[in-house]
Amino acid sequence: MYKVMITDxxxxxxxxxxxxxxxxxxxxxxIATARSGREAVEKVKExxxxxxxxxxxxxxxxxxxAIREIRKHHSRTAVIVLTAFDxxxxxxxxxxxxxxxxxxxxxxxxxxxxxxxRAMDRIREEKEKQQKELELREQLxxxxxxxxxxxxxxxxxxxxxxxxxxxxxxxEYQGYKAGALTRRAKDYIKANFSKTITLEDVAREIxxxxxxxxxxxxxxxxxxxxxxxxxxxxxxxxxxxxGDELSIKEICYNIGYSDPNYFSRIFKKIVGxxxxxxxxxxxxx
Length: 285
Description:
Blueprint: E1 2-7, H1 11-24, E2 28-34, H2 37-47, E3 51-55, H3 63-70, E4 78-83, H4 88-91, E5 101-104, H5 109-162, H6 170-192, H7 199-206, H8 210-221, H9 225-241, H10 248-254, H11 260-271, H12 275-284
Parallel strand pairs: 1-2, 1-3, 3-4, 4-5
């Protein structure tokens, strides 16, 4: 679902854009409107829209000043500027602010549909690119951890060889110790998944090296650390989504993520639907 915000000091302009977008895009949601530049800055901070319509001539700070302020923290939002004919030259300054398009008032329905569709395509491509980059980084990190784990296992094997073994029960003793370490790691993750935790944090808690824990965890659970942590977070998110008490953003923060958009992508990848769709389905049941 694409989040759309509209800023214009004329209510009729807002209503017109809402009608066009809602009629032509089932996967777009108008999450906020604003009647001034200052209000727009505050509501963008609160709602983090994917697409932002911004009128130039408004009371207080104008549209370009508002965009300049918004760009400090929301560089990926697709901004579409609205302008009257006599402000067209002024609107060209918007190019320097990374504005995607500027539309002349009164807005043309087909042009709005074209621009919104183009914005959605760009946003989708950027999100897919980000996801691929994230997965590649995780794969590289996992490969590095596995390589280091081999070296650590050699050292661990030497340690067990040098340690007096309790007779023929030494293999069972070592297996018990490994299983106990994995259980302690799981318990720590379950108790702290709502925080920003890393493999290094867990390894430090149970007094082993990150490389050894990574190899041990994968061997005994079939999942790497990130996969297990993500599974815990998503299961808890599903439970929270079945209630009415928390918003999507609050749930995102409560399970240890700081970016609601990233949370939505991970949730959809694992569950098959977005958090909003999952919540709606449960409420209809």
